Amino acid sequence: TAAGLDNIKRYDPEKDGDYTGMCMPFGLMRSMNAPYPIQIMQTDKHIAFLFEQNTWFHVVPFKNAHVPDVNPTWFGDSIAKWDGETLIVDTVDLNGYTRLDTRGNPHSDKLHLTQTFRRTDAGHIAHSVTIDDPVNYSKPWTNERTWTLASGELIEPTFSAICAGR
User: Fold this and answer.
1) What is the DSSP code string of the chain?
2) Can you give the pLDDT of all 166 residues of the chain as single tens digits?
3) Can you tell me the distance from the alpha carbon of 158 to that of 58, in angstroms, rounded to the nearest whole number?
4) Are 30 and 102 in contact (CB under 8 A)?
5) Model confidence, pTM
6) Strands ordered across the beta sheet of 57-61
7) How many CB atoms within 10 Å of residue 137?
């Protein structure tokens, strides 16, 4: 949209400072797109995404409806459900303070994300995300990628002490 084009043209992380450099949360999509590992854990009531990046986490309940009138947050209000072998995570109520990626693609607080996760074999997950933000994009668009299972455990990033003021 015109607003989205204007937003990306005005975005200058070198001049204005990138919000992540000020120790603000990456937000959901930037955390999902980070080059660092993600651990996924599931119980009968929740699925949790543990991000090695700054040790962020996002716990998603299995339920049928979003919380009404919730305050928007950095990671939004997400709900999960299974459709056969595909996990679907639906997210709304993001605060709009973050970017979709390190390139700086914008989103607003009207963003609606639909992510799918499907094991294609023992070592891979097909992940897709549909971005629906009528403020910045003229129509919904989808990004697809394949995740590869990594060995080892998540580590605490050594740079986390910087944001803690140490």
Assistant:
1) -HHHHHHHHH--HHHH--GGGGT----HHHHHHSSS-EEEEE-SSEEEEEESGGG-EEEEEB-SSPPTTPPPBSS-EEEEEEETTEEEEEEE-B-S-SBSSTT--B--TT-EEEEEEEEEETTEEEEEEEEE-TTT-SS-EEEEEEEE---S-----TTHHHHTT-
2) 999 999 999 988 887 777 777 778 888 998 998 888 999 999 999 999 999 888 889 999 999 999 899 999 999 999 999 999 999 999 999 999 999 988 889 999 999 999 999 999 999 999 999 999 999 999 999 999 999 998 888 887 655 544 554 4
3) 21
4) yes
5) 0.89
6) 38-42, 46-51, 57-61
7) 18
Query: Of 56, 62, 28, whose CA–CA distance to 42 is shortest?
Result: 62
Please name the residues in contact with 55: beta carbons below 8 A apart, sequence gap of 6 or more: 154, 156, 157, 160
* Torsion sign, CA atoms 19, 26, 103, 137: negative
